[in-house]
Amino acid sequence: MIKRAFSSLITWIIAFQLVSITIGYVTRFGMYPWYGQLIKSSLTPPGYYFGIIWPILYISLAILGWKLHKEREKTILKWYWTGMFLNWLWSPVFFTWHLSGLALSILILLVTINAYILIKLRTRYTNYAYMILPYFLWLCFALYLNMMIVLLKLDKENAEFTGLPKKQIEKLKSS
Predict the structure, then answer these.
(1) DSSP string, 45-63
(2) For the chain, what are the domain ranges?
(3) What contacts 38, CB < 8 A, 6 or more positions away?
(4) Nearest-angstrom CA–CA distance, 93 and 89
(5) Three-state secondary-structure class, residue 164
(6) 114 in helix, strand or coil?
(7) C-alpha 154: how far from its chain's center?
(8) How far, CA to CA in Å, does 102 sit from each of 2, 81, 91, 149, 173?
């Protein structure tokens, strides 16, 4: 029984990592040079951070999905899978199709769905809520980063009023 449960969990983790790798591979072609030319928040981390953070987040999401599936939590699982679909959709929308406004809308939905999941988990499965908390916080940060890209794109002409560092203002005006 324990061996079967463990192999089931490993299957979930491997499946999530494979989805992540596939999405990364497919979207990389639309990423360059477009993403490098965007005006981004000064809080945008270097690219290699994402390669460290996402595999860890996907492991915790796979474990959470596996646990919810084991517990037969149908309502939470419905929102969980809706959130995962939106998560997986965001990368092509942003990096391949360059639709930063639509990507922002997807992130707003993701934050809302995951806030709901967090609240539901907190009332029934407190430990599970802790498992999804880092992902929720990362989504909030991603929402901020995506929002800044959209706003900076809209505010190119009025760069002085954004409160950006002088270097970024010069970069905005020259693009």
Answers:
(1) PPHHHHHHHHHHHHHHHHH
(2) 2-174
(3) 149, 152, 153
(4) 6
(5) coil
(6) helix
(7) 23
(8) 43, 20, 11, 12, 25
User: 126, 27, 132, 130: which is closest to 79 by C-alpha?
Assistant: 132
- Give SS3 for 172: helix
What is the reported pLDDT for 136? Answer: 98
Q: Among 60, 56, 34, 48, which Cα is nearest to 118's?
A: 60
User: Cα(87)–Cα(83) distance, rounded to whole angstroms?
Assistant: 6
Which residues touch 61 (CB under 8 Å, ≥6 apart)?
16, 84, 132, 135
Residues of the chain with pLDDT under 70: 1, 155-166, 168-169, 171-175
- Residues 135-153 pLDDT 10s: 999 999 999 999 999 998 8
Q: Residue 109 corresponds to which amino acid?
A: L
Q: Fold for 2-174, please state it.
A: Ferritin (1.20.1260)
Distance CA 100, CA 102 (A): 6
